[in-house]
């Protein structure tokens, strides 16, 4: 997850409509896998791994070079390991939630962790959608790019994985977000704006309304092939492992 946005939201991150809704979409996406062990790359505080632990996963290893040191904690009586680096894993599900858009070599990053995983295990990747929406928000978060569906699936294949399914989310707010990003790009071009995140805290009523709206959108997750701010791609390590 984006650490900068986590810092903006502070203690409200776990209740913010964006992370609540994204967490629900994550759960829906992996419902048929029932993962036991999670490897969370670029995890930050580990909000998504903690959610999966609360709904059945037995353990999680969080990897982030931003950690000051390695440490172990319990969450709901289950182990979570914070690590700066790993050399091996027994995870059956790896998460890369808004990670690969931050690096130049997205294929290499995916492959470097997928090669540690057992054949048949899964990798779930989320990325921001539509390069046309690249704006001050992306510059602030240090994104290299935004993705299209086929672009992401090609990256996944180039890393040696097999795409299982790709779906889109946050379509309801796409028109408003597109307008906002257009305004940002014009303002940036005129030197009237500096890079900043579009994510912000809302009052309780607005926050609940946005959670409810995206809960309704979640029912159509399998049908949405056009409207999105985020792309979810579930991939599998081939039966023969990575070559």
Describe the protein.
There is one protein chain. This protein is of the alpha/beta class and 243 residues long. It has one domain (3-236): Rossmann fold. The chain has helices spanning 3-9, 17-29, 47-54, 106-114, 136-140, 149-158, 174-189, 204-218, and strands at residues 37-41, 59-63, 71-75, 78-83, 93-97, 122-128, 162-169, 230-236.
Query: What's the CATH topology name?
Result: Rossmann fold
Note the total helix count: 8
Helical proportion, percent range: 25-40%
Query: Any idea what the CATH superfamily is called?
Result: Vaccinia Virus protein VP39
Radius of gyration over C-alpha positions, nearest whole angstrom: 18 Å
Shape designation: globular
Unreliable residue stretches: none
Identify the strand order in the major beta sheet: 3-4-2-1-5-6-8-7
Straight-line N-to-C gap: 29 Å
- The secondary-structure element order is HHEHEEEEHEHHEHHE
Name the average pLDDT. Answer: 89
State the name of the first-level CATH class. Answer: Alpha Beta
Structural class: alpha/beta
**Main sheet specs:** 8 strands, mixed
Strand content: 15-25%
Question: Could you write a compact summary of the structure shown?
Answer:
The protein is of the alpha/beta class and 243 residues long.
Name a few traits of the molecule.
243 residues, alpha/beta, Rossmann fold, eight-stranded mixed sheet, 34% helix, 20% strand, globular
Topology:
Layout (H helix, E strand, L loop, with lengths): L2 H7 L7 H13 L7 E5 L5 H8 L4 E5 L7 E5 L2 E6 L9 E5 L8 H9 L7 E7 L7 H5 L8 H10 L3 E8 L4 H16 L14 H15 L11 E7 L7
Parallel strand pairs: 1-2, 1-5, 2-4, 5-6
Antiparallel strand pairs: 3-4, 6-8, 7-8
